[in-house]
Amino acid sequence: MTAILALENLSKRFGAVVVASDIDLAVPRGQALGVIGPNGAGKTTLFGMIAGSVRPDAGRVVFDGADIARLPPARRCRLGVARSFQIPQPFGAMSVFENLLVAARMGAGLDQGEANALCVETLERCGLAALANRRSGSLTLLQRKRLELGRALASKPKLLLLDEVAGGLTDEECKSLVALVRAVKESGVTIVWIEHVVHALIAVVDRLVVLHGGALIADGEPREVIASPRVAEIYMGIPADA
Ligand SMILES: Nc1ncnc2c1ncn2[C@@H]1O[C@H](COP(=O)(O)OP(=O)(O)O)[C@@H](O)[C@H]1O
Ligand SMILES: [Mg+2]
Questions:
Q1: Which CATH number fits domain 3-80+157-236: 1.25.40.10, 3.40.50.300, 3.20.10.10, 2.170.270.10?
Q2: Residue 38: nearest ligand to its CA?
Q3: Which residues, listed in sequence order, are joined to residue 67 by a DSSP beta bridge?
Q4: pLDDT in tens, 65-96
Q5: Cα 93 to ligand 2 centre (Å)
């Protein structure tokens, strides 16, 4: 399998805080990759460097064979990179449908007819059909999270970056979100999913990496990674040699 995304020697620091130190990571096309790591580890910054809001100090972000590390976010989106934000960021004064339309027209570059069709489909898919005309500033947390995912999907991504979409949801809400993400994966979209709700992550991803101190300190089969002594040490303070 060829990699749709390859991070090569990617480095970034904010002052004295090193958030990425020579990171190498290849994500095969169609893979669902989970990313975990303590708060402040640099997970969201990593997404920023892939999607374009954060400029790396050094290194390459190779997407579909070309280095996109210095392209603006809108260009990357048009190439097929979409992200959801940890804190949902809809255009609050616009309706749910209008928010999706922006993604389909500006993000994916579709004409009006194609965009309408895609947005209707996305509403259904994300359980937002009954809310199409609702002002997005008035949505509940779950509805905002669904819209956040919907906006990313309406830009027709090849690579979908999800930043903590399951946080703060009830068990039932989490289950339906997991089903939705799994369906997106099954449609062939490559997914990188940052998530603290590990049971949700494990239900979907093929592979799990752990980011800590600016480096990927574990990479492998999700259950094995979770059970590894190094990961227990980082998350629970249990020494690896205990
Ligand atoms: N734009 C920024 N300027 C300065 N420091 C930042 C900026 N963005 C993030 N940081 C710092 O970088 C570290 C990693 O942040 P972040 O990527 O949000 O971590 P995570 O998503 O893993 O919790 C934190 O210490 C954070 O305060
Ligand atoms: Mg974060």
A1: 3.40.50.300
A2: 1
A3: 62
A4: 999 999 999 999 999 999 999 888 899 999 99
A5: 26
